[in-house]
Write a structure and sequence with these properties.
The chain is mainly α. The longest helix is centred in the N-terminal third of the chain and has 36 residues. It has a domain of about 200 residues. The chain is about 85% helix and about 0% strand.
Length: about 525
């Protein structure tokens, strides 16, 4: 079991590296966008349009498809039915193709309605500008959703790096488009259009790359429209509950955007920049661990219940320990060194000191959602591996209700930070509900094995380093050099302390397994 856990740890590291590369490219993209748009009205439009355009991707993409596709595909392969697995993959691709085509066309046609619903605080030219951008972005969304099928195939074959690193191409295409448009001195509207075209080209590159790699594991990547097979019916049967769960979470995000759109110019873009930074560690901690755990947990369900529960508890304990250890520096930096972090990442051009302070304030609240949301992803992954998709959907509904009520109450006094606080509280509500249900199902979660004292010591040391930098800087947005130095000291303190406590072994984490 130790060897298996070491293997999973290395797989999680591979996913982490890939996601870091992808998210860093995304941060560069956002920095370039911040340079040209700042927190202007045009930045609000771009942020809202991308959120709407990505709606279908988030609903039908990686998380939903993985939860329905990978368990069935992995079980067929584990039973030795390679031909059946390939036939199932092709028929799943056919069903997804039809769904994506219909949804993309509907998105283009319904762009005015979607824009009005999601960005109801926009008016006149700003709203019309948003509609235009949404129509340009929906074809991009369709390509990214199709890429999720290839990602599912590759993950089921334990191929993790390329699927999560491929979005680097998507970001670079947008960066190139923005820089070229900037060199030509385009206005805000033309810059936004260039960004949308770059996003479409980047999505096409990602899809081409992942389909080419997936072809090595399947007879053909041509879709099949034979929808009569039992495995496809099983996957489709799981789909509504997973879609509901994902859909409810997306609705929560859209409600947040809608509420913030009423807070005036720069509010939506400020929220978007803070969320971009938050999603870097969240993707590493939540997406990375879930991607590695799902195929392994799905395989564990083939044994008898007592042994199944023991194996999944051990996997959860190992994953929760890694997530907690790695979340500590992220939470500390976002909560205590937000000004320094935002300055390093975005302060340039039209993104000034005022923009930096606003984003840092929202980011400080976001920090406290990190561990809660990562735990939600792990708990939901365990339920998906067990074949239970309805319970996570119900928990997601409870989350949205909690988030909306709290956000409405707090936004009147605290603005953007109030909306983020509502989302943060809701994340912990969902984590608690899912964790309690999973505890009953598995006769425990393995939490008793967490090294609580060591984690507390690591948190204290990291926080002390961050607070020292905050005190020296006086809470003001620092220059890029001093911000970078301060963040480096905090990071080095975390690494040294974690290593000395035995919570982080870099040589083991990145080492290759010897045959």
């Amino acid at each position: 079991m130790e060897e298996q856990r070491a293997k999973e740890s290395r797989s999680a590291t591979v996913v982490t590296i890939a996601i870091v590369l992808s998210r860093l490219a995304g941060l560069v993209r956002q920095r370039v966008a911040a340079h040209y748009f700042g927190t202007s009205a045009a930045a609000d439009v771009v942020a809202a349009a991308f959120r709407i355009g990505n709606l279908a991707q988030n609903l039908l993409g990686e998380g939903t498809l993985s939860a329905t596709f990978i368990p069935v595909y992995a079980r067929l392969r584990a039973s030795g039915d390679e031909a059946g697995a390939r036939a199932f993959a092709r028929s799943a691709l056919g069903a997804l193709s039809l769904a994506v085509l219909g949804l993309t066309l509907a998105g283009v046609l319904a762009a005015p309605i979607l824009s009005h619903v999601i960005a109801g605080g926009f008016e006149g030219e700003k709203l019309a500008f948003t509609v235009e951008q949404v129509r340009l972005l929906f074809p991009m969304t369709g390509l990214l959703v199709m890429s999720a099928w290839a990602l599912g195939v590759l993950n089921a074959h334990r191929s993790f790096f390329l699927p999560y690193a491929a979005p680097v191409l998507w970001s670079f295409a947008q960066i190139i488009a923005l820089v070229l448009a900037g060199m030509l001195r385009f206005g805000d509207r033309a810059l936004a259009q260039a960004l949308a075209v770059g996003a479409l080209i980047g999505a096409a590159l990602v899809a081409a790359l992942l389909f080419a790699r997936a072809r090595q594991h399947t007879v053909s990547v041509r879709p099949s429209f034979d929808f009569s097979s039992a495995p496809l019916r099983e996957a489709v049967g799981r789909f509504p509950a997973v879609l509901l769960g994902r859909g409810v979470i997306q609705i929560s995000g859209l409600i947040d955007t809608l509420l913030i759109s009423f807070l005036g110019d720069s509010a939506v873009s400020t929220f978007n920049y803070a969320q971009t930074i938050y999603l870097l560690p969240m993707s590493i901690l939540g997406t990375g661990e879930a991607a590695v755990s799902l195929p392994e947990m799905a395989a564990d369900t083939s044994v008898e219940k007592t042994e199944r529960n023991r194996r999944i508890r051990e996997r959860l304990a190992a994953s929760l320990t890694r997530v907690t250890v790695l979340s500590i520096p992220a939470v500390v930096v976002m909560a205590l060194s937000g000004n320094a972090l935002v300055s390093v990442l975005f302060r340039t051009g039209r993104f000034d000191e005022d923009s930096t302070s606003r984003v840092a304030s929202a980011l400080a609240v976001y920090a406290f959602a990190l561990l809660g949301n990562a735990s939600v992803r792990l708990f939901a992954t365990a339920f998906y591996a067990l074949g239970e998709t309805r319970l996570p959907a119900r928990m997601a509904v409870a989350r949205v209700l909690a988030s909306t009520v709290v956000s409405l109450v707090l936004m009147k006094r605290f603005g953007i930070a109030g909306v983020v606080a509502g989302a943060t509280l809701a994340a912990w509500v969902e984590a608690w509900l899912l964790g309690a249900a999973l505890h009953r199902e598995l006769d425990g979660l393995g939490l008793e094995t967490l090294p609580k004292r060591k984690l507390a010591t690591l948190t204290g040391a990291s926080a002390a380093a961050a607070m020292g930098g905050h005190f020296v800087l006086g809470g003001r947005p620092p220059t890029a050099l001093f911000a970078f130095l301060g963040l480096s000291i905090t990071g080095l303190t975390f690494i040294v302390t974690a290593q000395s406590l035995g919570l982080l072994d870099l040589r083991s984490l990145f080492g290759r397994r010897r045959s």
